[in-house]
Amino acid sequence: MTRPLAVIHCGQLVTVAGGQLSIIADGTLLVRDGVIEAVGRDVAIGPEYEIFDAAGRVVMPGFVDAHTHPVFGGNRVDEFEMRARGAAYEEIAAAGGGIRSTVRKTRAASEDELVAAAQRRAQWFLRTGTTTIEAKSGYGLTLEDECKMLRAIKRLNEAGPLQYVPTFLGAHEIPDDFRASPDSYVDLIVNEMLPAVKGLAEFCDVFCEPKIFNVERAERILRAAREQGLGLRVHAEQLSRSGAAEMAARAGAKTADHLEQIDDAGIDALAAGHVQPVLLPASVYTLGSKRFAPARKMIEAGLPVVLATDFNPGSSPTPSMPFVLSLAATQMHMTPAEAILAATIHAAQSLNRAGRIGSLETGKQADFVVHDCEDYRELAYWTGIEPVFATFVRGERVYQR
Amino acid sequence: MTRPLAVIHCGQLVTVAGGQLSIIADGTLLVRDGVIEAVGRDVAIGPEYEIFDAAGRVVMPGFVDAHTHPVFGGNRVDEFEMRARGAAYEEIAAAGGGIRSTVRKTRAASEDELVAAAQRRAQWFLRTGTTTIEAKSGYGLTLEDECKMLRAIKRLNEAGPLQYVPTFLGAHEIPDDFRASPDSYVDLIVNEMLPAVKGLAEFCDVFCEPKIFNVERAERILRAAREQGLGLRVHAEQLSRSGAAEMAARAGAKTADHLEQIDDAGIDALAAGHVQPVLLPASVYTLGSKRFAPARKMIEAGLPVVLATDFNPGSSPTPSMPFVLSLAATQMHMTPAEAILAATIHAAQSLNRAGRIGSLETGKQADFVVHDCEDYRELAYWTGIEPVFATFVRGERVYQR
Question: What is the ipTM metric for this complex?
Fold first, then answer.
């Protein structure tokens, strides 16, 4: 039996209790059997407890990264270099770049290879303070390869310590052999893939854009997914204002993600439909765009904004939530406090896990991080370094610098 | 006596020899007495060598960061949060923010306190692959406090392992008690500070802006510094196009730094005057500006562009050269190869150290980094993580993950 754990001298114990930042100065966190037993300032510690002295450091919930594409073959550093040189989208596409290049490499990889590559990258998440990630398929685009990706995610989650929430994203791109008849690919998704991924996926996501899965196709897929019992997420309003936000609300989606092109009417639709916005500033950064999603308007509309990395080999090769906090503070006028709520409890809500993770409260899973700083705002401030001193999942130390 | 060292199985040994990227596949690096003894593919290794197996990783020169402000009291996270909230410059100034807030805290700190705080931050540089930094004074703004800062830098350099090149920046801001008579402060710099910093500083820098040290004041200070035998650097064309580039060329400056507002005529002046541009994209990023310096035009004009962090507690709280490489590739259309030259050999040139550091060539100091990736371009690609596996200064391993 593992000894219970007392984390003492937390200079700032940032609990995020009740959906607020809630800082306990010089706090103590007690953990028993992987669950938070007590959180507070004056907490009695029995002799059976193992002690972890945070020595004045900041202790926070592990980040919950609610939008990632962590399973893929190869990387896209060639395309990254071409874009740096100023190559146009057409040139990159002609050279075989874009999502389809990762599709080719992912199809060519075995399930074991995909798991091994993702396991190495899982360390990056733990090193930067993330303990749970939403993980999408979407680089297979055949029944077999989409299932291969979702089985890989299942194995990664079972192996731990990083925790995965699986999302089926068969509707990520129209595969080459369906270019002439995209609706036949929608048929394939609805009739064959969705029934097959039952038990492998918790959510279904669609990349809703006029030239790919337009609003009608996206809505058809999402309604079919809902009938299968899947939660719904949508890549929405990224490249154009398409009406995906309103569609997400109609379909009962849990989240609408990206939203760089959304307007006030779209924000109103999200609010009315209780759809959470998931903002992905690292992809805006990586693509060299200047147009970040209007985070402040969404916060002012009362929306529980989520921040995520969008980790993927093309448009967002960063696994770092601290970097996303920095982007939120410097490019989107979110305060560090707002950004941390967006990266913890709001993200957990969007994954139907707010009762279990995303804050440090008695009875919740003991997923927490000791950051090597004295003030939680430093996480968004010092940029380009890994601020984590130690990461814990279910009360077990899974990473220490 | 230390044993000689053989670093074997360098998947890419990026030598930067001759000012080109020059990659040796599966290379070997031999080090003896802190100096590079051999670099190549088929290198004989005697039995006396200690072996470091890079296991296919990228091995490169340590980054040379040619523009930093690493010695300061306190931090400016309060101001960072205010700016995130959308506070205007005036509001921040009224709350005591800006450079002057760091001046107050730096004056209040003892030399020992400044050294201790900077020593902790020195780890961040080593962790992200930097082995030499240029280090400016400029938060003292009195004879006594400027000398205190430069003595702190001297002690930091002597303590190592991070190496410092000291720059006197008394002309960083007009101190409060000289607001009414800026020229009297210039008198103080020229008549008292410059003679006093002899032996403590290698370079003199001036923040040249119309409202602070205008072109005339800046030129007066730089000419006096030159007479003292100091090399010259200039904060130029950051907030306005002031003619600082032309002045830097006239005064014989080694570098002109920032340059976000420069135009073609200014670039021509730098080229004609053999002034190296030092570009600081992390401060553009931190301030939420969209206007990066025109790097491509400078490269096309044949200028040996330098990239640096501008590490400081206000406008650039990042010590990470990998993050600067990412900014260069995603925001400035520099290729990873161009960015690496700018962060190594070009930077060493700008500090009069190209004969000693900045590349891996026989006879040079053995400052090198083993990066945990297979392709040097990944340093600019994967963002927000620390890519370093191990850092060596003068052949000694000073950091390992």
Answer: 0.97
DSSP per-residue letters across B296-356: HHHHHTT---EE---BBTTTB----HHHHHHHHHHHS---HHHHHHHHTHHHHHHTT-TTT
CB of A157 less than 8 A from some CB of B = no
What CATH number did the domain enclosing A384 receive? 2.30.40.10
Whole-number Å distance between alpha carbons of A169 and A139: 8
CB A54, CB A372: distance < 8 Å: no
Q: Do B384 and A128 touch (CB under 8 A)?
A: yes
The answer to whether the Cβ–Cβ distance between A384 and B329 falls below 8 Å is no
Tens of pLDDT, residue by residue over A331-363, are 999 999 999 999 999 999 999 999 999 999 999
Interstrand relation of A231-236 and A203-207 (parallel, antiparallel or unpaired): parallel
Both B126 and B98 in one domain: the answer is yes
Distance CA A104, CA B210 (A): 56
Please answer yes or no on whether A384 and B128 come within 8 Å at the CB atom.
yes
Whether B346 and B232 map to the same domain: the answer is yes
pTM over 0.90: yes
Give backbone dihedrals phi and psi of B392, rounded to 5 degrees, phi first.
Answer: -125, 135
**Structure confidence by residue, pLDDT tens digits, B339-354:** 999 999 999 999 999 9
Does the beta carbon of B212 lie under 8 angstroms from any beta carbon of chain A?
A: no
Question: Looking at the structure, do residues A240 and A123 belong to the same domain, yes or no?
Answer: yes
CA distance B284 to chain A (A): 10
Report how far residue B221's alpha carbon sits from residue B12's, in angstroms, rounded to the nearest whole number: 45
Residue A335 with chain B: CB contacts under 8 Å: 81, 84-85
